[in-house]
Amino acid sequence: MTDTFHSSQPIYSQLADRINRQILRGELKPGDKLPSVREMGIQASVNPNTVQRTYRELEGMKIVETKRGQGTFVTENTDILNEMRERLKQEEISDFVKGMHDMGYTDLEIQTGLQSFLRNGTGGGDK
Amino acid sequence: MTDTFHSSQPIYSQLADRINRQILRGELKPGDKLPSVREMGIQASVNPNTVQRTYRELEGMKIVETKRGQGTFVTENTDILNEMRERLKQEEISDFVKGMHDMGYTDLEIQTGLQSFLRNGTGGGDK
Amino acid sequence: MTDTFHSSQPIYSQLADRINRQILRGELKPGDKLPSVREMGIQASVNPNTVQRTYRELEGMKIVETKRGQGTFVTENTDILNEMRERLKQEEISDFVKGMHDMGYTDLEIQTGLQSFLRNGTGGGDK
Amino acid sequence: MTDTFHSSQPIYSQLADRINRQILRGELKPGDKLPSVREMGIQASVNPNTVQRTYRELEGMKIVETKRGQGTFVTENTDILNEMRERLKQEEISDFVKGMHDMGYTDLEIQTGLQSFLRNGTGGGDK
DNA sequence: GTGGTCTAGACCACA
DNA sequence: GTGGTCTAGACCACG
Predict the structure, then answer these.
(1) Which nucleotides on strand E sit less than 7 A from a protein beta carbon?
(2) Which residue, among B60, B62, B2, has the nearest Cα to B30 in the 3D structure?
(3) Angle at CA C108, nearest 5°, toward C107 and C113?
(4) pLDDT, tens digit, for every residue of C111-123?
(5) What's the confidence (pLDDT) of residue D1?
């Protein structure tokens, strides 16, 4: 695991993102237990309080659930996960398109560029 | 002009990127004079040597031409600029797609997601 | 090693030339490690930064490869080296002929002069 | 006229070379008057004594003749001039070949390289 | 150790 | 003024 954080964003937020991606990629599945606050603090070499805050954040997004005395778990409500998945996708796409617009590329260029990349770059099949 | 740099990449390289984008966006046109190394050093609050390294880098890419005692100018060879534009587009798209794959999205999701974003997000017209 | 430089050309460039010639002459073979920037700085009594600029220059010409934390090495791509060899030969010949023309010698004089020099001066055999 | 001298050789000797070349190129013809010691001193921005020494050197080579009260003249003895011309040619060729050998080129490479350069580089005709 | 980056400050050639 | 070169000295990442 990469355990460096950049300074332009709060660490708890970066950590939350990181966990989100692990869930997205299927490294953490619905029902999986997250490391304890202390354990995660050591792994990511951040203060346990920061981890606490991260977990609270994720809890607010309904992505994880905390069970007193047992730990923190990835929600089993797959609807929520799918929703997050969708939202994050939109975000990434939006950022990408905005960046391209900033550099002066037109919508058409973006579309055709992407099409031809997907046709050639990944061998034509889906991932 | 944003004059902050992140530490994960050399300053001269970030500066070069920034200038590249200004050219791409048409803020700097072929034949335009760049600020002198000293001037740019002040604007970006970096050492003139670092600016010079940036300019040298851009010169190596043939994006910029330097005339002793006169200054540094955006090349008037638009072929080179178009080529750069194309190359950078490919790079951005590639990075985007790789990032999406890393997060577990399929090619199809990327395509349809982009299509619908472009239809709704920008009002349906081209930029 | 001669460690004097003339002022009509940048030191980093003269150093690069010198290393080029060492490679040409086979004193440095593909894969050989160059002295570290610091070491070479001492040998040539120039600043390590200047040596680094030299190495960077050679790297740009693909004559040399640099491995972080290990050092700088002569490329093992002999095609590039042969190409350089050929290019440099052309340059030297061109400079020679131009110089002779400047002094008023004709092509014929140059040719016959060279022929007779090679027959007598080196004993008639190839080097 | 280029009026810079490098430090690795005495100035009077560099000046003599320069005049030699002017004679070789026909800019100074047999019988021509050289500038006075004072005049030449100004032109080349060196001490008149140095010019004096240069002229004495050339006189020793029988290339110029000094006539008391009149000045210094290029010799009209064309044999001497032809001889010098021949000697200088040999020197240049010798230096060239030595340099090429130093860089590891064989006699054959030098010959064929020169031939093809003369055929292509100068348009096939003599100068 | 290695190379890579950056700064500060100096001097140069060119125009 | 412009860019170009060089030095001295510092700090960094990588291995």
Answers:
(1) 1-9, 13-15
(2) B62
(3) 105
(4) 999 999 998 865 4
(5) 47
- The strand ranges marked E within B8-103 are 64-67, 71-74
Burial class (CB in 10 A: 0-12, 13-18, 19+), C9: exposed
Tokens of D47: 């001490």
Yes or no: say if A41 and A34 are a contact pair by the CB < 8 Å rule.
no
Smallest Cβ–Cβ distance between A104 and the set B25, B103, B105 belongs to: B25
Q: At A123, which amino acid appears? A: G
The answer to whether B73 and B34 are in contact (CB under 8 A) is yes
Residues of B in contact with A121 (CB under 8 A): 94, 97
pTM of this prediction?
0.75
Enumerate the β-bridge partners of residue A66.
Answer: A72
**A73 SS3 class:** strand
Kindly state the tokens that stand for D9: 């050789």
Contacts of B5 (CB under 8 A, 6+ apart): B11, B14, B15, B46
Residue-wise pLDDT for A78-97, tens only, equals 998 888 888 889 999 999 99
Query: For B88, which residue in chain A has the nearest alpha carbon?
Result: A103
For residue range D64-111, what is the model confidence (pLDDT) as tens digits? 999 888 899 999 999 988 888 888 899 999 999 998 998 889 999 999
